[in-house]
Specification:
The complex is a heterodimer of chains A (about 500) and B (about 425). Chain A is mostly helical and about 500 residues long. Chain A has 20 helices and two strands. In chain A, helix 14 (about 325-355) packs across helix 20 and helix 17 packs across helix 19 (about 455-470). The longest helix of chain A is centred in the last third of the chain and has 32 residues, at about 325-355. The radius of gyration of chain B is 34 Å and the shape is elongated. Classes of the chains: A mainly alpha (about 500), B mainly alpha (about 425).
């Protein structure tokens, strides 16, 4: 396969989506066909590329000082690209129904589709400058999606999102500059690119810069205390919170952290240093903090947002172990959390869409009127808790096993934090399930079935099935991730 | 012997071996469990869950390693939740909350024990776990404690028995028997299987057996007291199960480390509990009132004060405060170095343009009010509305501009640090 073809899945959604801005489509059905056509086609192209593989990289253009915009496909690209290509069509299908009664649909789907291409750009980026550019583009393209409702909360949420994102990117940029100066290249190379002859004597400075970079990219991955934008951004329409704020945007942050840790600074340089301890410390505090906050949160989507913050830090914690097993755990949780959390958000969105209920105390007995949605929510909740035979167990197991193998004392603390977080997860998610199905004592009116139509139900059903499938038959996935984690793919 | 290995399941793969006595035990449990489930569970999902529990229970009896046992043990626990929901009433939600709480916490503790074994012994296969130098001293006792809590709670041993009160109730007694017949034998079997793997000589086994004897004895004493003071028939079944469970622990651990006698004890327990259940179904139980010993359990002495009250309060309060810190920092910046410029004179709300547009609209509204809108006149001042709209749009624009400039400032700071560093 020609390397220039790597541009297709990046440009197709950007051009296709951007076209709707200049040539708006009035008919809902035409717009849906157009958007879904582009999304599905792009996903098929991405999958085709991920399976076939593309040898080498494609340099789009050179800038000054050896900087170039460059794409390639390696193991990590496969994981992030695969997640995007699998989930985007389902999320689009769901969005059609959810946005049916909203305004400015052309604008929404324009940026929604463009973001797909930009995220693929992040996945396929071959060096730090390309990653950084697409990372910033993603901030800009998603701003419009958060502000979509144009009311006061949306404006405030957008401001917060923008301030946090741009400030975070500034710190990440510092890391980029140092890699440019102290690295042999800015390309992603398994094991890192630092030129130790240049580093000599400045190890602590570089470790400090690494921490800054992780915290910078960590803003998108909602590391405490830079997580504030994520719960606030839950005012956005549910397809945005589900796909972007539970999967694409936040995972892009985690993906960038994996890139700088394993492919830029390198684990040989970082392992056993104070920088590793700090990264691990931030992850552990975030896990405990976000799980505890979720317990006390009464807004449905915000509770899920705190859960996302906690789970993202599982990924970062596993990455901070800086071993191949740690990387495997990170990647596994990236995959499983994407599926679990998008399902939970879809369920929450379906409840809000069908009943207008946003707060958990309003959900009493909702399982009777929406049995399908709340049934899938129960499966998702059990998966996030880590119940065996569901996908969350597989990734949590991989993370905790990796932590034990390192024999680092702080890793054991992290393991305990993850286990305690599992208990808190049971509290904050199962309390919703119990309320939905069993708190029916004062409900006297007849049950009115309110499950949504198949535009919404199909994605929820397929993703729930995936949670079970990965949970039961995770061997091939884990083998693939192990190959990636050892740099063999 | 039957050996089954399923690689790739749950990441690590599952492995089972059934010898003669394990096959007998599995067949007995499957047979009796199936009969009770078919007869007593009404809802389809309850029946499906019962099938899952039966299958997982059968897998526990043949598990070759601790990971396989853990997976099946957790499945038995979580699937058995559905029986509580089979005929929901006003107590169901509390019962489920309590039961799931127990499952999660004991699961958490067992996971810790499992990782301790994996870390020190380097394997989870029963036949390879040795309590030699690799697993000894504090880690050894920590493992014992973890599994005693994990499996012991399933056996309803003393202090870990409080789930009985919410799970076994008069209305749901027909489901309660499932817990007795399936959960308690799997808990006892798992304890026996692991603890026999953790011993290399008779003296070690003897010390474990003594410990189990004390726990079993206390469980029997508490069980008798609870039966004596029991207020409802459903709970009575649970209390009798608890009493028999205590006896089971003593007999299994004193007689042999595994095999024939353990299987006989477990089958004996199942037969006795079935007879008791049959009798209970036929008799009327008169409620009794006496000293309440409900507080005497880990749930009331540890779980509720610590996990339900202290920790959520601590984390909730501390983290809520911390959560506001970044926002407070931004607010501080806005109030100090990013303070709005002070207004020297009061702004006029509107402009000539908004006044003209508003006046024209007001006149049109007046005209409409006198003619076609006489019944429902417009009482709004468009001069005021236009001025307010202009003010709001200006403020929004200003907020967005300031946010962008704040972000750009942070970006510039980053750039400057880099440039300074590179230059010097």
């Amino acid at each position: 396969m020609k390397t220039w073809m790597l541009l297709i899945p990046v440009l197709l959604p950007v051009i296709g989506g951007g076209g709707m801005y200049f040539f708006p489509i009035k008919e809902d059905r035409f717009r849906q066909c157009y958007v879904f056509g582009i999304t599905l086609l792009n996903s098929l192209i991405v999958f085709w590329m991920l399976i076939r593989g593309v040898d080498g990289s494609f340099s789009v253009f050179h800038m000054a000082h050896g900087l170039e915009l460059k794409f390639h496909i390696d193991g990590l690209s496969r994981v992030f690209g695969g997640i995007l290509a699998f989930l985007w069509p389902f999320a689009t299908l769901y969005a059609f129904e959810y946005m049916r009664h909203e305004e400015r649909n052309n604008l929404f789907f324009c940026f929604y589709t463009m973001t797909y291409g930009i995220c693929v750009g992040i996945a396929f980026s071959a060096n730090l400058i390309t990653l950084y550019m697409f990372y910033e583009l993603m901030t800009l393209s998603t701003l419009t999606l958060v502000i979509h409702k144009l009311d006061q909360p949306s404006i405030l949420a957008t401001m917060k999102y923008m301030v946090y994102s741009i400030a975070g990117a500034a710190f990440a940029f510092i890391g980029f500059m140092f890699i440019l100066h102290y690295g042999t290249t800015t390309d992603f190379v398994y094991g890192g690119v630092l030129d130790m002859s240049k580093v000599g004597g400045r190890e602590n400075l570089l470790l400090f810069i690494f921490v800054l970079t992780v915290l910078g990219f960590g803003v998108k991955a909602a590391i405490f205390p830079f997580h504030g934008w994520l719960p606030t951004a839950s005012v956005a329409p549910t397809p945005v919170t589900a796909l972007l704020h539970a999967v694409a945007v936040v995972k892009a942050g985690a993906f960038a952290i994996l890139r700088v840790t394993y492919f830029s600074f390198g684990t040989d340089f970082l392992y056993g240093t104070w920088a590793q301890q700090i990264m691990m410390g931030f992850a552990i505090v975030t896990i405990l903090f976000a799980s505890s906050r979720a317990v006390k949160e009464i807004h449905f989507k915000r509770r899920l947002a705190y859960s996302t913050i906690s789970n993202l830090s599982y990924i970062i914690f596993s990455a901070s172990l800086m071993t191949p097993f740690g990387l495997k755990g990170s990647l596994a949780h990236m995959v499983t959390h994407a599926i679990m959390k998008i399902t939970l958000f879809f369920c929450a969105g379906a409840v809000m869409h069908q009943t207008g209920k946003e707060y958990i105390y309003e959900l009493k007995g909702i399982g009777r009127s929406m049995p399908f949605v709340m049934g899938c929510f129960t499966i998702g909740s059990a998966a996030v808790m880590g119940v065996p035979m569901l996908c969350g167990f597989v990734s949590k197991w991989a993370i905790v096993t990796a932590a034990v193998r390192t024999q680092i004392p702080l890793a054991f603390v992290g393991m305990a934090a993850i286990l305690f977080s599992a208990f808190l997860t049971a509290v904050y998610l199962f309390s919703i399930v119990v309320k939905a199905f069993f708190r029916t004592e004062n409900i006297v009116e007849p049950v009115k079935k309110e499950d949504p139509n198949w535009y919404m139900k199909l994605p929820i059903a397929v993703l729930s099935g995936m949670m079970v499938l990965i949970g039961v038959w995770s061997g091939p996935l884990m083998q693939l991730l192990e190959m990636i984690a050892y740099g063999r793919l | 012997m039957i050996h089954v290995a399923i690689p790739g399941i749950c990441g690590e793969g599952l492995s089972f071996s059934y010898h003669r006595w394990e096959i007998i035990l599995t067949v007995v449990v499957l047979l009796i469990g199936s009969i009770i489930a078919v007869k007593n569970v009404k809802k389809p999902y309850g029946k499906a869950a019962a099938a899952g529990v039966l299958l997982a229970s059968a897998c526990i009896f043949g598990a070759d390693d601790l990971f396989t046992n853990y997976i099946c043990f957790e499945l038995v626990g979580f699937l058995s939740v559905f029986w509580l929901a089979d005929e929901p009433d006003s107590h169901t939600s509390d019962a489920i909350k309590k039961y799931v709480g127990w499952l999660v916490i004991t699961g958490m503790i067992m996971t810790m024990g499992m990782f301790l074994i994996s870390h020190y012994a380097g394997t989870l296969v029963y036949s390879q776990i040795l309590s030699g130098e690799a697993l000894s001293g504090i880690p050894y006792y920590a493992v014992l404690a973890c599994y005693l809590v994990g499996y012991g709670s399933r056996c309803a041993v003393v202090m870990l028995h409080s789930w009985i009160d919410s799970t076994y109730r008069e209305e749901s007694m027909k489901k309660g028997i499932l817990y007795s017949v399936l959960l308690i034998p799997t808990g006892t079997w798992s304890l026996l299987r692991l603890f026999s793997s953790l011993t290399v000589d008779f003296s070690q086994w003897k010390s474990i057996a003594e410990m189990m004897g004390v726990i079993g004895g206390l469980t029997i004493v508490l069980g008798i007291y609870r039966i004596w003071t029991c207020r409802e028939k459903g709970v009575l079944l649970g209390d009798i199960s608890m009493l028999l469970s205590g006896g089971l622990l003593i007999s299994v651990f004193w007689k042999a480390s595994s095999g024939q006698s353990a299987v006989f004890c477990l089958i004996g327990y199942i037969v006795v509990i079935m007879i008791v259940y049959g009798i209970l179904l036929k008799i009327d139980w008169k409620p009794k009132h006496s000293l309440d010993l409900e507080w005497f359990s880990a749930e009331h002495m540890l779980y509720e004060p610590l996990f339900v009250h202290a920790l959520p309060f601590l984390f909730g309060t501390v983290f809520r405060l911390i959560d506001y810190l970044p926002d407070a920092f931004v607010a501080l910046l806005r109030g100090t170095i990013y303070q709005d410029s002070k207004q020297k004179v009061w702004d006029k709300v509107g402009t000539p343009a908004t006044y003209i547009v508003g006046s024209i609209l007001d006149e049109i509204a007046n005209l409409l009010n006198k003619t076609i809108l006489r019944k429902r006149p417009i009482r709004k001042s468009f001069v005021n509305a236009a001025a307010v709209a202009r003010r709001e749009s200006r403020e929004t624009l200003e907020i967005v501009t300031r946010s962008v400039s704040f972000g750009l400032m942070m970006f510039s700071v980053g750039m400057m640090i880099v440039l300074i560093y590179i230059m010097f």
